[in-house]
Design a protein that fits this description.
The protein is of the alpha/beta class. Helices cover 40% and strands 13% of the residues. Strand 6, helix 7 and strand 7 form a beta-alpha-beta unit.
């Protein structure tokens, strides 16, 4: 028995409103063809779907359109060059570790500079997460499309591999730090990876980068009591402000999990908060549920071409179903671990 179809006929929170068009389902027999056409542009023959008429056919006897034509027409309904550049979008890139391991938390260090350079060459302006949120809050036209680079968890590889590249390109970036340094200034390892020290965090901020909060213990905030929820946010904020000597105004939800109660708490401590919902922030976006682009989905050069091109919205729409399922599985695992720990 296959996975049930997940239709996106109504607005989906994973996709910013400018791209909430079209209907995609994860078990669509053409799903792989969508990807192949986006990445290679090759012809795939004709579509033959029993019981389905081509949407633009004048009558039932019209010959089927070739696969490429029909798929491209479907995708144009959810994306276009005009929509992709309208409304002062803020593209927030989400990374974790910069490594060649190939797991969900890693991104090839060699591609970081290429990804950022593509956006710069395409005319996007680099800002921090809080800088992008401030532009959205003001509601005034900015003239240029904005992008922000963000890293969750503060892995040491971000300092070793990412900082030199971003400094060379003149791109400020935001690192969301969870935990509290010990007496030696070190953060405890996470997912088997070493992390930045207090000295690295201070230097990051001193160089013009942004340091955002990510809680102390990296819990599922939706499971916490009201007191514990505020404690995680307040202590993370104060610990990082003590290290950097600067105000910490941005936040990222651990695992991307949040609800109305968690967002309300974030509003009391920060000026904006990032989720892990796949999409592009823009006018009308909730500043306490900012969508991001998970760069694990762009870890080869073919996909990087989509990042700065007019088909980005269509690619994100295609990823929405699998992304939703992935987050659902993660939530189940995190909650099972929380229950096991009592």
């Amino acid at each position: 028995m296959g996975l049930p179809a997940i239709q996106f006929n109504e607005p989906c929170r994973m996709i910013s409103s400018d791209w909430r068009r079209g209907s995609f389902c994860i078990d669509d027999p053409n799903a792989l063809a969508y990807q192949e056409i986006l990445l290679s542009g090759k012809e795939k023959g004709a579509l033959h779907e029993p019981g389905r008429r081509d949407r633009d056919a004048p009558d039932a006897t019209s010959p089927p359109k070739d696969r490429r034509t029909l798929i491209m027409e479907q995708m144009r309904e959810c994306n276009s060059e005009e929509r992709a550049t309208a409304g002062n979008p803020v593209l927030i890139l989400a990374f974790h570790a910069l490594e060649e391991k190939g797991d969900v938390l890693s991104y090839p260090p060699s591609l970081l500079g290429e990804a950022v350079q593509r956006l710069l060459d395409a005319g996007w302006e680099a800002v921090t997460v809080s800088g992008g949120a401030a532009r959205l809050r003001s509601g005034t036209p900015v003239g240029r499309r904005l992008f922000a680079v963000s890293f969750d968890d503060g892995y040491r590889s971000v300092w070793d591999e990412g900082f030199p590249v971003l400094e060379r390109l003149g791109v400020p970036a935001t690192v969301f730090i969870n935990g509290r340094p010990d007496v030696s200034g070190a953060l405890s390892p996470m997912e088997g990876r070493t992390r930045m020290t207090a000295a690295h965090i201070h230097a990051w901020a001193a160089a013009g980068g942004e340091v955002g909060a990510h809680t102390i213990t990296h819990p599922d905030l939706t499971l916490l009591t009201q007191a514990a929820l505020h404690q995680e946010m307040a202590e993370s904020k104060s610990a990082l402000e003590e290290i950097t000597g600067a105000a910490v105004t941005s936040f990222a939800y651990p695992f991307g999990f949040h609800d109305a109660r968690v967002r309300a708490a974030a509003r009391q401590h920060f000026q904006c908060a990032c989720s892990t919902e796949q999409g592009i922030a823009g006018p009308g976006s909730d500043l306490y549920s900012l969508a991001r682009i998970e760069m694990a989905d762009f870890r080869d050069r073919a996909r990087l071409r989509l990042l700065s091109g007019p088909w980005l919205g269509a690619w994100l729409a295609l990823l929405a179903g699998p992304r939703w399922l992935s987050q659902r599985r993660l939530r189940r695992r995190v909650r099972a671990e929380a229950e096991a720990q009592g």
